[in-house]
Amino acid sequence: MLCEVCKIREANVQYTEVVNGVRTEHHFCSQCARDLDFRPYSAIFDGEFPFAEFLSALLGGETPAQKQDKYQQIVCPTCGMTYGEFVKNSCFGCADCYSVFDVLIHDNIKQIQGSESHKGKKPLYQNAGSADGEAAAGETAVGEAADGGSASVEEQIAALDRQLKDALRREEYETAARCRDRIRALKGGTQQNG
Amino acid sequence: MDNSRNIIYSKVRLSRNWSEYVFPSRLTDEQAKEMVGRLCGGLKDIDGQLNLRYDLVDLSEIGELGKRLLKERRVINRVILKKQAPMSMYLSDDEDVSLVFNGADHIRIQVTKPGFHLGEAWKDASQLDDFVNARFPYAFDPKYGYLTSYPTNVGTGMKAAAIVHLPSLALGQKFPSLITDMGRFGVSIRGLYGEGRENYGAFFEISNQKTMGLTEQEIVDLVGRVAAQLNDQENQVRERTNQSHRLLREDEIYKSYGILRYGRRISMKEAMSYLSQLLAGCTDELIRFREPCDIYQLILGIQTAGLQSRSKRPLDKDELDVARAEYLREQLPELAE
What we know:
The structure holds two protein chains of two kinds. Chain A is mainly alpha-helical. Chain A has ten helices and two strands.
């Protein structure tokens, strides 16, 4: 059967439409089908299975919208990726994203992988720098470091970001929330000043 | 007779990231270029690793056709094919070993071995992994393992795959449900060639679904077990038909040879199905050539990018069918007396 739009190519997409109980069948070739609007299914005709979108739905879509909103703005201080972006693309921006979003993604990774921890080979060499940073941040009380008058706003935000990340890793949500509020306040301040 | 004869090749891929840079999706082109340059430079003494010679290939300079050719020959995957960013690769001269920089992850190590040698492929990949890691520290987390761009690769960062040829099993009515059931064992199986839902040639890739919570050896064993099981079942079905319908089998195989050897226009679908018949005939020793012939290499050779690069110009569909027939006429040896 030929495609009903171009009438040149062989139809290989069958589209069944049900409107008010009336069923109509259409036959398109994949090229014409790509130009039509099939809403969420359009991506199918781009030649690739929309795996990222499918994963996204599994990673974030199932959680209640409120929870989503609350976490959307958590930002990875290293690469600048937000949790919202991660959920959208199912792709991490850097190695630190794993610890920043740890509590949010832990269950999902467990679901995808059927396990919560790595077994097997370990690298011979690893980045030694990160371990020191963690110990230092763990000892500072929330917000204190950022109150020092000498630090610039950017530095304060960066310090708070680190604390936020650590609090999330330790599952101390109240601490994390306080960090987040302070970051928001500081960011608001810079915008007004600028 | 080799009892793993339906297993065409084995493949192990490791995804790694250098702890110094953010993952490829967040790198600017300048950063990517710098990183790729440093990786290439730091590994330039790679020659001799696994007793092979390597060439440095700049993937952003070989053009669309060059990349499609590498994709057809299973050196690179679709992500790398489609990506437009600075990317380079060390490729062994037999094309079985490759290290791609700045694909989905910073470093992608792939080792392919003809036949059923998953364990050896893993051993070789691991050796190259240590060679890279001695120069570049990896992003690794004690809990999550090797950190990768996609959460579906995290942990071992390893994909082990066996490519099997199942022409008789695939004819069975229960085959589609068998494919679906594979998920329960933690492996996935997908057709290698075809269009839409139609499979050409009955080649299937079996690979691990999960990358975390199993050791690399456990992944190798899991994929190997399933591949061996499918291979045995295929053998049993073929042996039965060879006994009960030998004339019919020979007829199919020799007719396939005739069309491939003397045809003047051969579509992809035809060529794949006849080459599949011929491959089964060769492994069952129902047909013999005057000189040895690797049918799977012919299957790689008749794909679109391969034919276009041989003819050195773009071909339309009809021209491709003619070029395919010409290629097969040249390559297929005479039958043994």
